[in-house]
Amino acid sequence: MTPDVNSVPGSAMPPVVADAEPDDRGSRRGGRGRLVSALVLSAAALLVTVMAGVALGPTVIPLDQVARYVGAAVTGGTINADEVPAYSIIWQVRVPRVLLAVLVGAGLSVVGVAVQAMVRNALADPFVLGISSGASVGASAVVVFGLFAGLGIYAVSAAALLGALGASVLVYLAARGRAGLTPLRLVLTGIALAYGFQAVTSLVVFLSPNYQAAATVLFWLLGSLGAATWGSLPPAAAGVLCCVVVLLRHARALDVLSMGDETAASLGVDAMATRRWMFVLTSVVTGLLVAVSGAVGFVGLVMPHLVRMLVGSGHRRVLAVAPLAGGCFMVWADIASRTFFSPQELPLGVVTALVGVPVFIALLRRHGYLFGGR
Amino acid sequence: MELRLDGVSVEVAGRALVRELRLDVGAGEVVGLIGPNGSGKSTTLRCVYRALRPTAGAVLLNGADLAAMTLRDSARVIAALTQESHGELDFTVEEVVALGRTPHLPHSRALSREERELCRRAMARVDVGHLAGRGVLTLSGGERQRVLIARALVQQPRVLVLDEPTNHLDVRHQVELVTLLRSCGLTVLVALHDLNLAAATCDRLGLLSGGRLVTTGRPADVLTPELVRRVFGVDATVVRHPRTGATQLLYDLTTPAGTAADGHDDAGPTGDAIAKGIRP
Fold first, then answer.
1. Would A299 be classed as within a structural domain?
2. Is a pLDDT exceeding 90 seen at residue B58?
3. Which GO-annotated molecular functions does the record name (chain B) (predicted)?
4. pLDDT tens across B196-211, in order?
5. Which range marks the domain in which residue A126 is found?
6. What would the mean pLDDT of A138-157 be, rounded to a whole number?
């Protein structure tokens, strides 16, 4: 008897696992039940987080009032005249800021997942390809030399986006070799050029005529959502949404890509082409996010790992949960940044690192989580 | 399905790794590639599973040039077990095996019930069913190798390409694997280091040396003491398996006269220097 592997099920394969457990065991790592519970939990957490983010701040505004103001703004209802200051805080300042925090956290987390798969390196993050340092060149040029003054409050964002995209193009051109975009070349080129861009930023700041400008650049580099307005949301929202949808659609290709180019070829995935479009997608989205929030470090490196600890490594699960978890994390980080030293604001990057690093290391040690072997 | 290597040459950075290789693998035939390290076995296989594009010549599948097919189309027909080390992410065994369905599924559609059943049986077939929920990074080398074989089976290929599939496998699993290769009914091209295993498994062998095909034929015709000596630099006595009649080699462990002196001269001074702690 020769059981034929090539045949579709139903033929004569040995019934060795007739007594195997059902597929959806909740206890199995990365099981289906676990994904659903992770999704439900993180969605609920995000909802609570967003409400908290809007209510909390230097002035705490009760939730029922928050609900009334938001309701009034959305449905066009009326409020009393004496409520106008609180209403403006909620609707003009906090809601856009919290939504931007969600977008930035979600976007950086998802891009982090994609970049780690793309360059096949657990230490990669959205900024490893030199994007944030490129953006900082643009931002510092605006702050110090007053470029793009015609764009008003959007000058820094526009310059940062330009810098980010310019840096991506440079990294792409420098990393491209005869063998295409190989992961190691991409990382090395990104890191090398990042040093170059940082040097240019430092040079610009050094040449700056006043200290105030230097401080502004430094603050921008550490990240802040203080400049959030309704107007800053649509580009970031479109970018993040597009990124999540496209990546989810190609989740299996990401799985395959993270296993190596040869394996990818044998499974019918063109690793070079996949890396190329992923590079473009992640660069543009990172550029859009950096333009509105500065370079918030740590989130894009660590959220992917945290999410993998929860739901396993399969990219469909990771990409579904990462935006929710990343959004949550960022909103809380922003709440901390604007309340702890109020009225002063702590740079966002400081909070994400101070809070995130110990939490991450604790989780890493507890789960015996593996990346890069035993 | 019939596989033909038609004058395949591969040149990387000006160095010819494979030259003018011509080899036919008939439908359902098991053909082994043997040869010393660096003789071009893996490079040849890479051209078949399309991780490399031949610099000249072509790989033909039932007469059709692979280069004219999309990667996805050829991956539906040709599955491969590569030498590539695992990635960094700790996928479960089940997830890795399921990726074998990639070329058959549009984008990220989930596996159907039949496909999950197919995965389950492929895992059972190579004895990794009990590892389904384990992370691949926690497995031993041999277990991981079997998982990758299950993934190749799940691909439902017509042609199977394997690069040193018995690496890390214990004896029982080696025997089970080659039995599987013989019984699966697929067209198989496999690179093997173990000449005895190759002789017992393959219908025909292709002997490579320095990127060239030295000879091809039935194991008994390829594994002659003269050729083994010339290509591998080893003295061997050829015997027949008393029960199966398969050609087998017994290696003569007393070092051949000519090579002994060379080897010793090369290693000697360095070894001495290290032993005495002398810096050159």
1. yes
2. yes
3. ATP binding; ATP hydrolysis activity
4. 999 999 999 999 999 9
5. 92-357
6. 78
Please give the full DSSP string across chain B, using - where no structure is assigned.
--EEEEEEEEEETTEEEEEEEEEEE-TT-EEEEE-STTSSHHHHHHHHTTSS--SEEEEEETTEEGGGS-HHHHHHHEEEE--PPP-SS--BHHHHHHGGGGGGSSTTPPPPHHHHHHHHHHHHHTT-GGGTTSBGGGS-HHHHHHHHHHHHHHT--SEEEEESTTTT--HHHHHHHHHHHHHS-SEEEEE-S-HHHHHHH-SEEEEEETTEEEEEE-HHHH--HHHHHHHH---EEEEE-TTT--EEEEE--SPPHHHHHHHHHHHHHHHHHHHHT---
Q: Where are chain B's structural domains?
A: 3-218
Predicted TM-score (pTM) of the model is 0.85
Joined tokens for residue B172: 């029982």
Q: Is pLDDT of A33 > 50?
A: yes
Choosing among 3.40.50.300, 3.30.460.40, 1.25.40.10, 3.10.129.10, the CATH entry for B3-218 is 3.40.50.300
- CA nearest to A311 within chain B: B91
Position A323 confidence tier, pLDDT thresholds 50, 70, 90: very high
How many domains does chain A divide into? 1
Across the A/B interface, how many CB contacts are shorter than 8 Å?
A: 166
Identify the closest residue of chain A to B46 by CA–CA distance: A262
- The answer as to whether A352 is a domain residue is yes
How many Å lie between the alpha carbon of A9 and the closest alpha carbon of chain B? 6
Query: What CATH number does residue A198 fall under?
Result: 1.10.3470.10
